[in-house]
């Protein structure tokens, strides 16, 4: 069982368009699915679930879609907060969250605080997140700390300045919606993750699909550059 699963929740727009619905309805359905999948992951014993909800590149989308997404996110966090608390789920975020609109930021801050002592699964939402931005932000903080220190930068120096240094690397990365690309997700952390792509759109991805991904993961041979184990 992977300790940490990361998911690129893709396909909301296509899911809606195929049903003759506006894209925002796909995002609404996607938000519901997020809660379902987080519960399923917790029950299966996964300790960390990291979900790509909005990328640094998603700001390029039409303003109406961005506004709808930010509104949905605020609503979702507000509505689900009692459930997060009750189910012992800890909420974290990663990304340039200062760029989010104030109501969304405030709802997130409140939920992060209210769940900070929970001991169940940690659900991390990647928001205004980019893997390159994260590395650039880490280096910026590292340079500020080093002031004139010219020793070589180590991998651990970078890791310590990521958005959440306590987040372990994901062992499994799932992408829904069928695209075989990373789209700037967790570039540092995914270096040895097993990748699993399913054509299923995110609003149709549930416990069954999660189990299938974990089954596929359990059949992989992870070598980490070494030769196969005897
Ligand atoms: C993923 O679904 C959700 C976000 C990027 C916010 P999309 O909105 O990318 O859906 P498709 O890929 O257009 O179907
Ligand atoms: C990746 O999906 C970002 C999220 C799921 C939040 P996109 O739909 O933005 O990715 P591309 O544009 O297909 O690479
Ligand atoms: Mg997409």
Short account of what is shown:
With 230 residues, the protein is of the alpha/beta class.
How many β-strand runs?
A: 6
CATH homologous superfamily identity: Decaprenyl diphosphate synthase-like
Largest sheet geometry: 6 strands, parallel
CATH topology: Undecaprenyl pyrophosphate synthetase
Q: Write the element-wise H/E pattern from the N-terminal end onward.
A: EHHEHEHEHHEEH
Helix content: 40-55%
Structure characterization notes:
With 230 residues, the protein is of the alpha/beta class. It has one domain (6-218): 3-Layer(aba) Sandwich (Undecaprenyl pyrophosphate synthetase), CATH 3.40.1180.10. 43% of the residues lie in helices and 15% in strands. The protein contains 7 helices and 6 strands. Strands 3-4-2-1-5-6 form a 6-stranded parallel β-sheet, sandwiched between helices. Helix 1 packs across helix 2 (23-44), helix 2 (23-44) packs parallel to helix 3 (63-86) and helix 3 (63-86) runs parallel beside helix 4 (102-114). It starts with a strand and ends in a 12-residue tail after the last helix. 35% of the residues are buried.
Relevant terms:
single chain, 230 residues, alpha/beta, Undecaprenyl pyrophosphate synthetase, 6-stranded parallel sheet, 7 helices, globular, binds 3-methylbut-3-enyl trihydrogen diphosphate, binds magnesium ion
């Amino acid at each position: 069982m992977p300790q940490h699963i990361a998911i690129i929740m893709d396909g909301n727009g296509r899911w809606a368009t195929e049903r003759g619905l506006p894209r925002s309805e796909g995002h609404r359905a996607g938000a519901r699915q997020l809660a379902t999948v987080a519960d399923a992951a917790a029950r299966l014993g996964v300790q960390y679930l990291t979900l790509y909800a909005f990328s640094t590149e998603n700001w390029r989308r039409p303003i109406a879609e961005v506004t709808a997404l930010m509104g949905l996110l605020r609503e979702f966090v507000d509505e689900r907060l009692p459930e997060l608390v009750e189910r012992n789920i800890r909420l974290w975020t990663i990304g340039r969250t200062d760029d989010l609109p104030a109501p969304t930021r405030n709802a997130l801050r409140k939920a992060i605080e209210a769940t900070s002592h929970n001991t169940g699964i940690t659900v991390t939402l990647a928001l205004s997140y980019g893997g390159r931005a994260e590395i650039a932000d880490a280096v910026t903080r590292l340079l500020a700390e080093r002031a004139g220190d010219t020793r070589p930068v180590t991998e651990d120096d970078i890791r310590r300045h990521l958005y959440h240094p306590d987040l372990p690397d994901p062992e499994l990365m799932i992408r829904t919606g069928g695209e075989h690309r990373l789209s700037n997700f967790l570039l540092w952390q995914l270096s040895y993750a097993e990748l699993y792509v399913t054509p299923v759109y995110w609003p149709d991805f549930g416990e069954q699909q999660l189990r299938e991904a974990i089954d596929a993961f359990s059949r992989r041979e992870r070598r980490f550059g070494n030769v196969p184990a005897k």
